[in-house]
Every structure is written in C-alpha cells, then in structure tokens.
Write a structure and sequence with these properties.
Layout lengths: L5 H9 L10 H9 L3 H13 L18 E7 L6 H9 L4 E6 L6 E7 L2 H15 L4 E4 L13
Antiparallel strand pairs: 1-3, 1-4, 2-3
Length: about 150
C-alpha cells in the first residue's frame, strides 16, 4: 500500500469516533460509509499491515476501574536501547513506548489493574534492565479529544 485513497481517509477519520453500541458495530460503521462490513474490515487490516495505523482498539480508563496509569521515563545507554526496549515491551502493562532524543530517551505508559501494580511493574523493569524507571503519576486529568485528520 503506497498511498491511501479517499475511502481509507473516510475510514480513518470515522474510526476515531465512538463505535456504535450495537451487536455489529463494524457493520453499522460500514453502512455509514457506504461499505460492506467485509470491505471495512479488509481495509482496516490493509491499513494495519501497511503500518498506516499501528493498533486499533478500545481505550479503557484504568483508574475508573480501580487501576492506575503512570507516565515513565528511562535514561537508557544507546548501546543497550534495543535490549531494554524488548524487556520493557514484554510487560503487558506497557501501553505505549516511544524513543526520544533526550537524556531520558525512553518514555512509556504503564496501565495496571491496581495502583500498587505501577510500582510492582516499574520495579520489575528496573530489576530486569538495571536502569532506573522515573515515574510521573497523573495528578490531574485533562481530556483533549485528540484526533488526527487523515
């Protein structure tokens, strides 16, 4: 897939909104877009395979369900970056992981089932990698309604 077409753009823009709470949400969205459910699912798979999108899924509010989120950062020696990245990403609690051009060159989000899980997971990552995990817990939540126009 070298370029996305107008239909792919409509799909990407629409999928950033809420899915209908019906038994077949993809069929409902497909109908809105003038597609069949199979066409919509096929195009989403192709967009993912082409890495136009890297993931598609729900966003759960861990804190509302009794869990917690925490932004974390690490200063990983460049020669160890790939090894540390593999170890960090092996934890299912890691929601996002980004490399930055800064002394703190690895930033990731932990999402855990309990508030105590943040410390448990960050401590485990420190033990496994030998690199301290700086923790930046959420003090206040802001909803910014982030969208990217395709």
């Amino acid at each position: 897939m070298s370029e996305i077409d107008a239909t792919d753009r409509k799909i990407l823009n629409r999928m950033q909104d809420d899915l209908p709470l019906v038994s077949h949400p993809y069929a409902a969205v497909a109908a809105e877009l003038g597609l069949t459910e199979a066409e919509l699912l096929s195009r989403l798979a192709a967009l993912k395979d082409a890495r136009v999108i890297t993931r598609f899924g729900p966003f759960f509010d861990a804190a509302a369900m009794g869990g917690a989120f925490c932004l974390c950062a690490m200063a990983v020696p460049p020669e160890q970056f790939e090894d540390v990245l593999t170890k960090v990403n092996a934890h299912p609690e890691v929601a996002h992981n980004y490399e930055r051009t800064h002394r703190l060159n690895m930033w990731f989000v932990l999402a855990t089932e309990t508030p105590e899980g943040i410390g448990d997971c960050a401590d485990a990552i420190e033990r496994e990698t030998g690199v301290p995990v700086l923790r930046f817990p959420k003090l206040q939540e802001f909803f910014i309604g982030f969208r990217v126009a395709a």
